[in-house]
Each structure stands twice: as structure tokens, then as C-alpha cells.
Design goal:
T-fold; 10 helices
Length: about 350
């Protein structure tokens, strides 16, 4: 941990702050040493987080850690569908069509989701929560609903039933509407944690939550951050692709897949990705979509939407909206990949 000179005592007229500056001057002259990457990790949002950061300027590592932990607590209180006292669950529990205050953060996420919902022709939908509960994807066992129950539940679904009243208020047009932000929350969380680092004066970092991540700047020695994209097969935990990130611009890498979260029942595999139009798990051979955009929340929503749509419709949607996306399909025992037009023309990073 680097020492913050603002909190050090004077030693014979030469502060540790002066010493730090002098040492940094020697580093620039000799190149014999470089700043150390600081690392934080732990549980969050039902998964884990890993953060790497560094700076040539002095910083308070304890203050940064405390700021990050506090931010996770704030986000959890806002977006968690697992705690009844969260803002979004308070909204879900009120069964009327009155305007409800939810804050600017949730309204901004709903606005992103509305755009992606329309672009995906309704495949992506934040009001899908009753379907997740119906299929048992919130628990440890799959529940196989019958067609009649699925059709009944679909009557509760629809982004058009959720109205943005103003910058801080939402309104249900149907009293039993329930909102699930999990398809966009991790991307949003990545951005919120990144902002904490930026506010603390850190401009070189990698923030990862549950495999969703964002980088800014570079590693010591002007080396780019390099990201591994996992091979999208359930029985493997190996590297499939390496993304070399840009050093002069922030970018997020968000991947949605059918290969980690699924249930097997009577020889058939059911993905946790539900198509809001049919009320059923997707049934195609697209196993992974990686989206690369500056805004992690937007990238998170789009990766889910494109995976929901499947290889053909997903690629068409990505090209229409100019979304840089890597599609991986499983055909038999072979993985094949394709890239959207925007990814093919993206020159700020490389994927090998």
C-alpha cells in the first residue's frame, strides 16, 4: 500500500510525501521500478468481484476499499430482488397504478431497457420476473410449467406496461407488474464502482463483477489490460479468446451465455435465458454473446438481448443498432464464431 503524504509526519524536515515524490523522480530516470497494482476482491451480489488498480499519484488504499464496500451496499439496497426492503422490491410490492418514486438510477436503467426491448422486438424485458419465478430459476430446482400456466403468466409481462413518469418516478399500468433488474444490474454496478475509483483519483483500473468488467487506462509500464473470454462450454473453464483493451478510452466487456446457468430435465437442457415473448427458455445453438461498449449497463442489457434473439436475429439487431458483438455458436461439438459489423470495424482493441 502506498503512503498518503497528507497523513504523514515530518522527519528531520523531510516528509514522506517529499520522499514519495523523490522516489517517483528516480523511477522516471532509471526505469528500475514501477508502481504496484493494488487488488481487491470479495463476495458481492451473489457472486464475486475483483478489482485491480494503480496510480502514479499517492492514494489511500483503505479509503478506496471502504468507498467500494459502501457503494456495493448502496447498490444492493437499490436494485436487489432478493431483499424485500430494496427500492425495486418496494416498487414491486405495491399493487396499484399510482406514480412511485424509485430514484434517478432505476429510471435511467428502465430507459436503457426500453430501447433494448424495442430493438429486440420484446425478447428482452425487465418485467420478466414472474416467469423466472414460475420456472424456478430463482431456486435450485427446475419447475416445468404447463402451457396454460405459461400463457397466464405472460399476461403479467410487457415493458409497455411500465411507464416512466419523470426522471425519478415509475408507474405500473397493470397492478401485478414485477420488475427484475438482474439483466442490467451487474453492468450498472461495474460502472458505479468504476466511478468510485475515478472519484478517488484512480484512472488506471480493471473492475470485474461476476465476469462482467470494465477497464480504463493501462497497467504499469504502459501495458494494456488483457482480458480472457471463457470458452463457452459447461464442462470447461478454459480461455477461448484474449481481448487487448484500449489504453486511451474506457470500455466494458459484457458476456451473456447459456452454458453456466441451466437445468437438465429428462434429457433436455433448459437455459436460464427466457424469451419474454414465448415465456420459455431460448432454444437455439447460440451459447455466448460478448458486447464491447463504453457503458457497462448498456452493454449488459444488449448482451442478454442478443443472446435471447439467437444467432440470426441477434446479428441483425446488433448490425442495425451498430453494437460491437462477438457471437459464439455450438454446432455439434464445434464452436463457431461470428462478429457484428461494428465489431469488425472496431480498431481500438483486438480480439485474438
Amino acid at each position: 500500500m502506498m503512503v498518503n503524504p497528507r497523513t504523514t509526519k515530518n522527519i528531520s524536515g523531510f516528509t514522506l510525501g517529499n520522499l514519495y515524490t523523490f522516489c517517483m523522480f528516480l523511477v522516471m530516470l532509471t526505469g528500475c521500478s514501477e508502481p504496484t497494482i493494488q487488488k481487491l476482491e470479495g463476495p458481492a451480489q451473489g457472486t464475486t468481484y475483483h478489482i485491480s488498480y494503480w496510480s502514479e499519484s499517492p492514494f489511500d488504499a483503505k479509503d478506496i476499499k471502504a468507498g467500494i464496500e459502501n457503494e456495493f451496499a448502496v447498490i444492493d439496497k437499490l436494485l436487489s430482488n432478493y431483499r424485500p426492503d430494496s427500492t425495486i422490491e418496494s416498487f414491486n410490492s405495491v399493487e396499484n397504478t399510482d406514480s412511485q418514486e424509485v430514484g434517478g438510477e432505476i429510471v435511467s436503467l428502465v430507459k436503457i431497457a426500453q430501447v433494448v426491448n424495442q430493438a429486440s422486438h420484446g425478447c428482452y424485458d425487465l418485467t420478466i420476473k414472474p416467469l423466472f419465478d414460475l420456472w424456478g430459476f430463482r431456486g435450485d430446482a427446475l419447475t416445468m410449467p404447463d402451457e396454460l400456466t405459461i400463457q397466464k403468466t405472460l399476461k403479467q409481462i410487457g415493458m409497455e406496461k411500465l411507464e416512466v413518469v419523470d426522471d425519478t418516478h415509475l408507474r405500473k399500468k397493470q397492478t401485478d407488474l414485477k420488475v427484475d433488474l438482474s439483466s442490467i444490474a451487474q453492468g450498472y454496478s461495474v460502472e458505479r464502482i468504476s466511478k468510485v475509483l475515478a472519484q478517488k483519483g484512480i484512472s488506471n483500473y480493471l473492475v470485474e463483477i461476476g465476469g462482467e468488467l470494465k477497464t480504463n487506462g493501462y497497467k504499469p509500464g504502459l501495458q494494456p489490460w488483457r482480458i480472457a473470454v471463457e470458452r463457452p462450454l459447461p464442462e470447461e473453464r478454459t480461455m477461448h479468446k484474449i481481448v487487448t483493451m484500449p489504453k486511451d478510452a474506457p470500455i466494458a466487456v459484457m458476456t451473456s451465455g447459456t452454458y453456466r446457468h441451466y437445468f437438465d430435465d429428462h434429457g433436455k437442457r433448459y437455459s436460464h435465458i427466457l424469451d419474454a415473448r414465448t415465456g420459455k427458455p431460448v432454444d437455439h445453438n447460440l451459447v455466448s454473446v460478448t458486447v464491447l461498449l463504453a457503458d457497462p449497463a448498456v452493454a449488459d442489457a444488449w448482451s442478454t438481448a442478443l443472446l435471447c434473439l439467437g444467432p440470426k436475429d441477434g446479428m441483425a439487431a446488433a448490425n442495425t443498432a451498430q453494437i460491437p458483438a462477438l457471437f459464439i455458436e455450438l454446432q455439434g461439438n464445434e464452436l463457431t464464431e461470428s462478429r457484428s459489423d461494428a465489431l469488425n470495424t472496431l480498431t481500438t482493441l483486438t480480439i485474438n
